[in-house]
Amino acid sequence: MNDTVTTSPETRRAAAYGLEALRFDEEAEAKRIGDAIRRYLVANKRKGIVLGVSGGIDSSVVAALAVKALGPGRVFALHMPEQESSDDTIGFSTKLTDSLGIRSTLEDISPVLVGLGAYQRRDDAIRRVVPAYGQGWKSKIVLPSVVDSDAFRLFSVVVEDPYGAQSIHRLTTEAYLEIVAATNFKQRARKALEYFHADRLNYAVAGTPNRLEYDQGFFVKLGDGAADLKPIAHLYKSQVYAMAAHLGVPEEIQARPSTTDTYSLEQSQEEFYFSLPYERMDLCLHGLNNKVPTAEVAEATGLTDEQVERVYRDIEQKRRTTAYLHAAPELVDKASLNINSL
Question: What is the pLDDT of residue 151?
């Protein structure tokens, strides 16, 4: 995969590899993204953009880019908390919509999740390895970092009892898959609401994955992976933060740590999925994509050459195992349908 964000000749000639390799012209890139948004709406006869906002950096930047491209009157946002969302999620997402001057609505998805049995199904799966797990308990799933070991890594569940005592337990494959399957209801419920509002307004749904998430399959198929356009899927996470500063996203959102905001216990993205914090993960992914010598990536990230190679292997493994998430539905005889694509 080749980078598409243009960097300056000075950056490309930089002797020392580091975050300067990810610097770009934010205003030019914002214009390019805005042009693409407008072209999509014209080509597909849609009037504006709908998106879910979480108070996180990615959805905030997509919302700000949409406003810059279309004006606030053609952007509609959804706040979609549930009973396990962080207490400050609504505060952050409301601060964003207020600052942009866009219309928004609150859709609490907790009743939908209860109706689908999402919480019950997940808790039943956890009880297979932690029989005492029940009312008043909290949990999250974690994965050992590839940086620490190249050994085969298995997911574990961290549980916290009502008195605050935590313990960690290795998950069976069956329990892990069921926990993830039940949790994926959250992303799919949100996406259903986004498309409801998009349909009633004749708007398009904007997805919010950054390059790390899109490349590594860190999304739910037909959940947060579903969208009509994905304006920042080519931007590394560091570039998303740079764009946020350029567009004037509220500083509190820029300073907010990236979390999944999916499990009842606070969970960082790196302990669940990525090998490293985003600044170093960006450099590893960029280095792999652009064939930067391993030694230069290691020096820039503070890792050893072997650790960088482990991260590279993990990237390639995730690309292979999540390729199906990007795939369109398989058609037996596409030619007979007289269509170009589905």
Answer: 63
Phi-psi region of 254 (alpha: psi -120 to 50; beta: other; left: phi over 0): alpha
pLDDT of residue 11: 39
Contact by Cβ (8 Å): 260, 267: yes
C-alpha 200, offset from chain centre:
26
Angstrom CA distances, 26 to 19, 97, 267, stand at 15, 21, 30
Domain presence at residue 341: no
**What pLDDT is recorded for position 257?**
83
Tokens representing residue 116 in the block: 């689908």
pLDDT score of 15: 41
Looking at the domain assignment, is residue 200 inside a domain?
A: yes
Residue 2 CA to residue 59 CA, distance in Å, equals 24
- CATH code of the domain containing 35: 3.40.50.620
**Angle (nearest 5°) at CA 253 between 279 and 65:** 85
Residue 19: domain span:
9-325
Tell me if 220 is assigned to some domain: yes
Q: What is the pTM of this model?
A: 0.91
Instruction: Round to whole Å and give the CA distance between 275 and 24.
Output: 25
In a domain, 19, yes or no: yes
| Domains identified in the chain, total number | 1
Q: Is the pLDDT of residue 14 over 50?
A: no
